[in-house]
Amino acid sequence: MKPLAEMAEAVLRCAGGREKTALSRAFAAEWRVAREAGERPEIGTANPPMHPARPAAPELLSPRDVPQRKPGTPEGRIALLHAVAHIELNAVDLHWDIIARFTDTKMPIGFYDDWVKAADEESKHFNLMADCLEELGSFYGALPAHAGMWRAAEDTATDFMGRLAVVPMVLEARGLDVTPGMIKLFKQAKAASAVAALETIYAEEVAHVAYGSKWFHFLCGRHELDPKDQFHMLVGRYFHADLKPPFNEEKRAEAGIPPDFYWPLTA
Ligand SMILES: [Fe+2]
Ligand SMILES: [Fe+2]
Hints:
By secondary structure, the chain is mainly α. The protein has helices at about 5-10, 15-35, 75-100, 110-135, 150-155, 160-190, 190-220, 225-240, 250-255, 260, and strands at about 60, 145. It has one domain: Ferritin.
């Protein structure tokens, strides 16, 4: 099996949505089998691209140019699933990117176990969303999508702790806030497969936020830094907006993000 960082780079350089997630899941399975056999596979180093390869469609637009659709209509629900599919595909790349980009910092092998598992789950999430879209007569790529999603990765490309603060602890934590409302909307529409898919996503995303919090605190401890102060400083530096309540305080707590981390960052 090739070193993990090289696997990560291969996923980042794979353009197609289904192709990227298939490769991601195959590599994650290889890693899991090796780890369950008690092996410590090599991490190695890689040369991750500044922008991961993506399919020709969807067209990527600035958020203000992405048309808004009413969530209570079939078109609105397709647009919402399309937006989630796009987020999940970005998340696949984000998790492999954190594996490939920061190999200069020596980390315990559990760090890699966590992000490989998260990347595998994001790949499943993308496939679930793509399946739901196809069931509704659409597909990933049929609508335009937000261009700004990779911004956080670019901004934190040389700051490992900044990456952990912004991606899992701000962006993925935001997913915990908004997913229950989406589940309710699809329940009202009696869209059973979308409800089941979103419930899977909601259940699994708590762990991704928790991995972020765990490794952020680990690095703070290694450098004798106060985690809350560091978090506020790094989010202020790399995240260009206020955090928006309402927060899912219960799930955030379950994921290891206490209220005094996020409330001071609201407007
Ligand atoms: Fe996800
Ligand atoms: Fe996630």
